[in-house]
Amino acid sequence: MKTELHVPKRSTYTILSAMGYFLDGYDLSVISVFTFILSTYKIFEYTKFELAFVSGSALLGAMVGAILFGHYSDRIGRRYLYIFDLVFFVVFAILSALSTNIIEMIIFRFFIGWGVGADYALSPVYATEMYPNEKRGRGYGWVWAFWSIGAGVSFLLGYLFFLVTPLQAWRYALGLGAVPALVTVFLRTRMPESSRWKVVSQGGNAVEEAKALSSQTGMSENDIGALLQEKKDQEGVSAGSILALFKGENLKRTAIVWIQWIAYDIGAYGFGLYSPLILSALGFKGSLSILLSASLYVPGFLGAMGAAYLNDTTGRRTLQIVGFGGMTLGMILIAAASAYAGALVLGLGIIGLILWYGIGNLGPGNTMGLYAIELLPTKLRSSSMGSATAITRFVSFLSAFEFPFIALSLGKLTFFEVLVVVMAFAFVFTILFTPETKGLTLEQIAKSKYRPHRLEFHYDKTGEVTEEAKAQND
Fold first, then answer.
1. pLDDT tens digits, residue range 424-471?
2. For 53-78, how does the pLDDT look when each residue is reduced to its tens digit (9 = 90+)?
């Protein structure tokens, strides 16, 4: 007897994928509450190196999780890994909260990072593949917006617990991350496999299921036909092959994704992992620095929400240019606030912080992952997101050493100046090299040819060369 396919609402795909990003934001940011209390009250013995390592260990773990889960997601499918990866958030959030020394914290945070990296390679890919092409940017934008909610909630809970029990606040803040993770694990068990992955991996055997899910995914007969053609075109490519990301056309696209995302994470994590300490250095003392860290994710969330509605109209490239430009200006204002005294200058610093978080999430914070997913074909999509996440998590891990070693050795102004230069580089790089993907189907993007800052589209939705392309080629 044939089992009836469960067809969830589109909002269900979005929320359950978004909860993965909520947990990513929560678990990566909540460590700032711990490092703030550790530095303030010396609750454990530690060295400067261990302080940086405890902030970066989850990012190092994310590198491993992203590579492994991204590879196997392309090989065996999205669904089961999409469910299993959240187990890391449950188990190691609890163990982190029970840590008795700095070494235990580093180890447990490393393994919670496995879950973070895995979910980066799974949740946004799954959601993007299950969304209609004309709303793909909105679907991803909604998922990304929950990262800021998770980060903001981590600081807010840290602040509330700090008011009640300053020495133990970090335990409650870290441990509570297990609760939404456990709930989401059970809810994800109701989700079907990605239609696009099934068609490319199984061919005609998956066509009927893809048609059954078309009311939610928006896949037309032409889209399914293009996927079957993609399966033929990619027959020589091993699903999940990391090496395939660095061959021919794929190499150009992988380079675009890696370079711009690396630049973004040098700034985002170099600053974000120590935001309460940095805000203390700017003059916001005690629990106020934790509360202000939480409030900064309000413009971050608003920026991400703006991206959800602008990705498919304004476009990814434009948002990324605006975002990196805004982050550059924001960090210039923050640097000025650190160098000069006075209420006016401090006010400019606050404006800089709003630009850094708000415009940053409107642009590159949102577009980085979207490009990693869209620019590579189905067989390599999770591997692209996983490998990009892995290299950027390693860079983010190194960024955990930025503040302790640059700011504490050369001064916080030098630290801010370094971030200005990095963001300005990313701004120029986007203008020169990053293409626009708005309005194209995933199948069309896979068949296009990359040229500096644009894609040449040579085929229609059925895989035939267009008359316009023939004229150009002649």
1. 999 999 999 999 999 898 888 988 999 999 998 765 545 454 555 444
2. 887 899 889 999 999 999 999 999 99
Determine whether 222 is exposed, middle or buried from the number of CB atoms within 10 Å of its CB (0-12, 13-18, 19+): middle
pLDDT of residue 108: 96
Domains annotated for the chain, with CATH where assigned, are 10-473 (1.20.1250.20)
Distances (CA, A) of 423 to 206, 334, 368, 457: 44, 13, 14, 30
pLDDT at 260 over 50: yes
Average pLDDT, the chain: 86
For residue 407, what pLDDT is reported? 66
CA distances in angstroms from 4 to 1, 175, 312, listed in the order given: 9, 39, 33
> What is the pTM assigned to this prediction?
0.83
From the list 305, 303, 297, 351, the residue with the least C-alpha distance to 329 is 351
The pLDDT of residue 343 is 66
Tell which wins on pLDDT, 162 or 204.
162
Higher pLDDT: 400 or 387? It is 387
Residue from 392, 395, 373, 393 nearest 383 by CA = 373
